[in-house]
Amino acid sequence: MPDSRQSNGAGGFLLRLPGVYAPQDDTRLLLKALAAEGVRSGARLLDLGSGSGALALGAARLGAEVTAVDLARRAVLATRLNCQLARQRVRVRRGDLFAAVHGERYEVILCNPPYVPSRAPAPSPHRAALAWDAGSDGRAVLDRVCEAAPEALDRGGVLLMVHSALSRPQLSLARLRRAGLHAAVTDRQRVPLGPVLRSRRPWLEQRGMLPPAPTGEHPAARPTTPSATPAPAPTPTPARALTPATPATVRPVTVNAPSPRNSW
Predict the structure, then answer these.
(1) pTM of the shown model
(2) Are 194 and 263 in contact (CB under 8 A)?
(3) Which residues contact 173 (CB under 8 A, 6 or more apart)?
(4) Could you give the percent of the chain with pLDDT greater than 90?
């Protein structure tokens, strides 16, 4: 019988439910950014799109007062179960991004949103693809987070967000800066293309979002070409954004690699 547990990258194991996004390279990259941030004990922290609860648990273990939000019922259940099993106190809410915590403000917001470009305008909330599909440009959720996050941050608060280079991190930075935040990419990581992006590669190449794979080269083994600006390939990137006052900071984290969601 297959083991339904998986390391969460933060010194523990998580119960995995079918259809719930499992911790991967982008999760670990965001946990690394959170540890580098030096979250104070008792800090009010929001985990948007909690999935299996890996980020919420990592933040709780650092002493933060954590609220975790997800739209998928199974993800909400997985987060609650994993927090109970780990004996960590985390408030878990089901809802659509900030609507689940309307009017609340946080010192830290963590977000590992769906960011894989898709032919479909939006996945059904009852499908596993809700965890990764994000519209034709991969920004269906990212743009909403960039627009709403400033109002949910305390003065001097920090937004830590990760997404693929396919989804244009520079656009996220521009939107956050226009909202008055100090935004910058703080880390990058190259990861291999996963099954979902491999299956969409011809479409992504046709749209100019991925470079053509050289003749005779297996797409799954092809790394993205390093570049000063985000290369047209999926790469998780942590971004850090601060709010005004002590200008809030956004630290986007980008993964420079063929695909951040490499288990799908």
Answers:
(1) 0.78
(2) yes
(3) 183, 184, 185, 239, 250, 252
(4) 39
